Amino acid sequence: MPSGNVIVLGSINVDIVSRVSALSLPGETVSGGPLDVLLGGKGANQAVAAALTGAPTKMLGCIGEQSFGLPLQELMEGYGVDMSAVATLDGPSGAALIGVDAAAENSIIVSPGANGRAAEAAFPDPSAGDHVLAQLELPADVVLDYFRRANAVGATTILNTAPALDVPEQLFGLSDILILNETELARYAGTGEAMEAAAKIRRDDQQIIIATLGADGLTALVGKEARTLPAQPVTAFDTTGAGDCFCGALTARLAAGEAIWDALEYAQSAAAISVTRPGAAQSMPTRAEVANTP
User: Fold this and answer.
1) Which of 32, 91, 192, 222 is a good FRET partner for 69, with 20 to 30 A between their CA atoms?
2) 82, 166, 244, 262: the active-site residue
3) Is 247 in contact with 158 (CB distance < 8 Å)?
């Protein structure tokens, strides 16, 4: 794949996080620890992960005039993300209410805020050689339209199917690379072993399918080759944003011209570091940190 910039089309949220002894059941109230108000959103997390990996990274998205006191634009720019194409809309930014339990598992409620109005923004076209990464926290029609524009100029399109929602049928076909976890695979392909499920949704042999399997690593279909890469053993502290770290780091390495299998191994290493740290965007490692990991 040609070398180019990373463009992340996605959500920018305020994460409101509390650690709890156990995640609440329906109708149950639990006591939480100190409250943290942090930068988050799948798009923002992935853009930070890409930028810290060393790729020139532009964010496409929307923030609100009300952001719970958090300077989202400045925080993103502090990580090296180009925010010049982000629209500021009236009303609130997107927000996520996150509980994290003692086993590092999380429960998340997302209110879209400005993200849900991304159709009001005018995003610049990508260029040939760019790598466009998107998720499903923006309206699917916005992602579909931008992937059409990316395909028209020869940019590489990468779709992380999170959260698992109903999407226009054409969107998967416009994606050069699909990244799905086990839950998303089951939704889009039905039950079955990961490799079999991935093959069901594949457009053709040119489309790369990556199934992330948590502690079991990942399975990928690349051309006619199928391979499983084991997960790296770590003691998790907070798994929030681990999938976003993987997606952003992978896209950055592909944009730098790295071979897919090498980029996958790098992305796994980055994600493994991220789960040992609290938060989402703030847990993303730099390229130097990944390189120095045994």
Assistant:
1) 32
2) 244
3) yes
Mean pLDDT confidence for 17-30: 90
Q: What's the sign of the alpha-carbon dihedral 159, 165, 170, 173?
A: positive
Q: 70-98: per-residue pLDDT in tens?
A: 999 999 999 999 999 999 999 999 998 98
Domain ranges of the chain: 6-22+35-291
Residue 17 CA: distances (Å) to CA of 25, 35, 164? 17, 6, 22
Give the relative orientation of helices 260-274 and 42-53 as an angle to the nearest 10 degrees. 110
- The domain made up of 6-22+35-291 has a fold known as UDP-N-acetylmuramoyl-L-alanine:D-glutamate ligase (3.40.1190)
pLDDT at 105 over 90: no
> Cα 160 vs. chain centroid, distance in angstroms?
6
User: pTM value?
Assistant: 0.92
281 is written with which tokens? 């965007």
**Taking Cα atoms as reference points, which of 144, 216, 231 lies closest to residue 185?**
216
Distance CA(19)–CA(99), nearest Å, equals: 6
One-letter identity of residue 158: I
The pLDDT of residue 3: 61
